[in-house]
Specification:
The protein is mostly helical and about 200 residues long. It is elongated and about 65 Å long. α1 runs antiparallel to α2 and α2 packs antiparallel against α3. The protein contains four helices and no strands. The protein starts with about 45 loop residues before the first helix and ends in a 7-residue tail after the last helix.
Length: about 200
């Protein structure tokens, strides 16, 4: 299954002259298609688990920045620069997760079914996060002084909910991978065969 990943990329903006030094914008990218040849010398399942751990870290950081954006919601005194200070790192974390997701999509065929299901969940959530981040950035570029308005709050609320959901899901995947590894090690230590 060849999935597209959205990346927020190079900064482009139609920001007003007062904020021209700190524009924030969006560019959408796709993963480059690739084939994975199953190799007995490469541990794709282990690589997927490692990428899950890295995405877990990114999702937790994204949740932190989205939470900070939410904390700005009721304050009309927070400047656009303060929002950019949280949206910038959040955009970077979404980009990082998207790049890791691209690799997961390339190796997907060589992973376990539970890992494939997690890759699909990550893909769906990262896409939603990219869309909401792009919308928040575009709204902010156009409405620097009205970031307390409902459309912007909806974007930041969605970002928080999606980051939290992703963090929770990937936490479970990481825990499952760890428990599975420990289970296989115990079976090996006990001299049990795979069919036992």
């Amino acid at each position: 299954m060849n999935l597209k990943s959205l990346l927020l990329g190079t900064i482009v903006s139609a920001a007003t002259a007062a904020f021209a030094a700190q524009p924030v914008g969006v560019v959408v990218h796709e993963c480059a298609p690739g084939k994975t040849y199953v190799s007995s010398t490469w541990n794709y399942k282990g690589e997927a688990n490692q990428l899950f751990r890295q995405i877990q870290d990114d999702a937790q950081q994204a949740q932190y920045h989205a939470n900070m954006l939410q904390s700005f919601e009721n304050s009309r005194q927070m400047s656009w620069q303060a929002h950019v200070g949280e949206l910038g790192p959040l955009k970077d974390e979404i980009n990082d997760m998207s790049r890791k997701l691209c690799r997961l999509e390339v190796i997907r065929r060589a992973t376990d079914p539970w890992q494939q299901a997690e890759i699909d969940r990550i893909d769906q959530t990262v896409r939603l996060m990219a869309d909401n981040a792009a919308d928040a950035i575009l709204f902010g570029n156009a409405h620097h002084s009205t970031l307390w308005m409902m459309p912007y709050q909806r974007y930041t609320d969605n970002l928080y909910d999606q980051a939290k959901s992703l963090s929770h899901s990937v936490d479970h995947a990481v825990a499952y991978a760890k428990a599975s590894k420990e289970y296989r090690a115990l079976r090996k230590d006990l001299g049990m065969h795979a069919s036992s």
